[in-house]
Amino acid sequence: MKYRESGMPPQDYWEALLDVALILDRFGFDAATGDVAELGCGYGTFTVPLARRIGGIVHAFDIDTEMIAHTRRRAAEAGLTNIRAAQRDVFADGFGLPDGVCDACLLFNILHSEAPVEMLREAQRVIRPGGTVTVIHWRSDIATPRGPSAEIRPLPEQILAWARDTGGLTAAEPSFLLPPWHYGVKLRKTA
Ligand SMILES: C[S@@+](CC[C@H](N)C(=O)[O-])C[C@H]1O[C@@H](n2cnc3c(N)ncnc32)[C@H](O)[C@@H]1O
What we know:
The protein is of the alpha/beta class.
């Protein structure tokens, strides 16, 4: 099932709203980072720059076959061989990766879904102990040009409460702003 309000505007417009390098820098992704799982890669906005900078593989999933084709095309154009992009309903079927194989999992603009705790649990499952679940979402304290409806748009505190509900994810640091429109939450796997 495609989760609620997960449609995308045209790529150029979407990507003009995100400072991708700042976001990846802020979470600390670098050559020492191993494999990463990404739920809902969309246009590959983060997938391709992430793959360029990490030592491992980006396992990118999206329910939309056009998004996967698009991400694969961008990866090929960039000459990257460390992206595995696959069509998958991650809500229904999970990532399909073994337990604990990833250093990190990206949940970017995802957690306004119908099942945030289940998605956090699945992210927790595929990362190693000490690994991170990295979350970005649209701010609610300012007017933003895109983003889900106010009623379902999570605050950082809500993300942290859902993380606690997993029983195995805790805040690695306080939440932070990712200008112009987003905030970030970095969670660490403790159990
Ligand atoms: C709002 S977009 C975010 C894309 C990307 N994370 C970003 O921030 O640029 C959400 C993406 O999640 C995908 N998606 C929705 N439901 C999904 C599901 N059940 N399994 C995997 N992907 C899903 C959509 O097709 C869409 O590409």
